[in-house]
Amino acid sequence: MRRKHRRLQSEADLDITPFMNLMIVLVPVLLLNMVFAHTSVLELNFPTGESLSAEQAEELQIQVVIYEDRLVVADNQGGVIKNIPQREGEYDFALLKDVMKEIKSRVPDKKDVIIMPSRQTSYQSLVSVMDTVRSYEAVVAGSVVEAELFPEISLGDAPALASGSAEVSS
């Protein structure tokens, strides 16, 4: 009688070490990328159908009007503060920031501003104006911080130009 010799077949163990190494690298990378996908929300005040009370009408209102060819910074008491023409086809946001800093130094308790874009204003221009009037970068004790200008933004419609006039009606 012949004996059959069977070889013992053992199943190979599954080696998951390379997979674990991949996970150790991949998970932190994915978590870091999630932080950069953060979006911010800006609260805006839209005009209501109600008329202004006498007290609100007397209160200083700072307005930034966005026309096709310029930015106009004005208030409801003294009229136009600064007319900022476009430079090389682009709005001059640096000059707008300087004007807003000067206004903030004169009225430090004021926190609201009205932005009035014209119908031709692009979305990017509107957002850039909002970012410019909200805050600016300042160096405090050797570190860069966001200094507050006018964080409470209201939107309205730009007044129509009266035959090329630079005046803004309040």
From TrEMBL:
Keywords: Cell membrane, Membrane, Protein transport, Transmembrane, Transmembrane helix, Transport
Subcellular localization, as worded in the UniProt entry: Cell membrane
Single Gene Ontology BP annotation: protein transport
Keyword Transmembrane: yes
Molecular function terms, GO-annotated: transmembrane transporter activity
A GO-annotated cellular component: plasma membrane
Keyword presence, Nucleotide-binding: no
Membrane topology: Single-pass membrane protein; Single-pass type II membrane protein
Pfam families: ExbD
PANTHER family with a match to the protein in the record: EXBD MEMBRANE COMPONENT OF PMF-DRIVEN MACROMOLECULE IMPORT SYSTEM (PTHR30558)
Protein family (similarity comment): Belongs to the ExbD/TolR family.
Protein's recorded name: Biopolymer transporter ExbD
Source species: Marinobacter maroccanus
